[in-house]
Sequence to fold (238 residues):
Amino acid sequence: MDDTSDRLETQDEEVAADAGTDPETFLSLLPHFYRGSVSQAVSAQDRLDRTTDWAITLIAALLSVVFASEDMPAYLLLIGLILLAMFLFFEVRRYRFYDVWRSRVRFVQENTFANAFDPAGVEHHPNWREEIADDLRQPTFKVSYLEALSRRVRRVYALLFIVVGVAWVSKITLFTPEAQWTEAAELPGIPGLAVAIVIALFYIAVLLVAFWPRKREAKGEIHDVEPGHWKETDDERQ
Fold:
């Protein structure tokens, strides 16, 4: 029984080794790996988008409830801020998993398809196969938690936070004319001025996270790059 198991393990190793050393076999195997990685990236992107959709739906429903009547308290919008923050932290985790698959797809594109289309191009990763093999054996996140948080805040949640903040200011001022804004903003046992200061500090923290100045680590994403040319215009062809 042990001899049979050892022979099977040896055969498995030989099959894998043959696939890695024979260019034709490897190139026939590569598209399956690439399609699988793309499928995983699309699935992760879909889960990411669903979280964003739920966050937007929540804010839309909350705004319709709060501004439906003057009697609706402004602190409901603060509950909305808390729920938004919860969605954000869920989304950051999902984004980091999405980035694992997206990075693998970009890595294959850069080191196989790009070089196939332009063999004279520079190969940035001479050991790219070893890099992918190591990541398949020991998967790791490619971006830090803080970078993922910064990206999701800057791209999506900063605008949602601003919408809720503007709605809260409007509710305690324009839509509560019979009371001072400090009275409309107060919570049980907490003065309205203190609530406003806490919210202001929260938005300062959001801005700091959104415009985090550290160099980005995410691989292959388009940011802070001038648009380039893809095809020649009719005048250039003539």
Notes: The helical segments are 2-21, 23-66, 75-117, 128-137, 145-172, 181-185, 192-210, 234-237. Residues 15-219 form one domain. The chain is about 75% helix and 0% strand.
